[in-house]
């Protein structure tokens, strides 16, 4: 059983949709405006954007 997933999130600043990993090993930034979408925490990341969809 997988604990980690890919998720589609929407940037709160520019509304860009981006697919990210929910357990990131580095901070994930928006490809358009550079805002931090997820911060690494050593486990499940702290998601700072709206989760639009969980991808299977």
UniProtKB/TrEMBL annotation:
Obligatory cofactor(s): Zn(2+)
One MF term in the entry's GO annotations: structural constituent of ribosome
Any one Gene Ontology cellular component term annotated for this protein: ribonucleoprotein complex
Zinc finger (C4-type): 11-33
Keywords in alphabetical order: Metal-binding, Ribonucleoprotein, Ribosomal protein, Zinc, Zinc-finger
Superkingdom: Archaea
A Pfam family annotated for this UniProt entry: Ribosomal_S27e
Family matches, as InterPro entries: Ribosomal_eS27, Ribosomal_eS27_Zn-bd_dom_sf, Ribosomal_zn-bd
Entry's cofactor comment: Binds 1 zinc ion per subunit.
Annotated Zn(2+) binding sites: 11, 14, 30, 33
GO terms (BP aspect): translation
Protein family per UniProt: Belongs to the eukaryotic ribosomal protein eS27 family.
Record note on quaternary structure: Part of the 30S ribosomal subunit.
Protein name: Small ribosomal subunit protein eS27
Lineage: Archaea, Methanobacteriati, Methanobacteriota, Archaeoglobi, Archaeoglobales
Gene name of the record: rps27e
């Amino acid at each position: 059983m997988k604990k980690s997933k890919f998720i589609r999130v929407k940037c709160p600043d520019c509304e860009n949709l981006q697919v990210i990993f929910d357990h990131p090993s580095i901070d994930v930034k928006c490809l358009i405006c550079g805002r931090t979408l997820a911060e690494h925490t050593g486990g499940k990341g702290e998601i700072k954007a709206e989760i639009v969809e969980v991808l299977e």
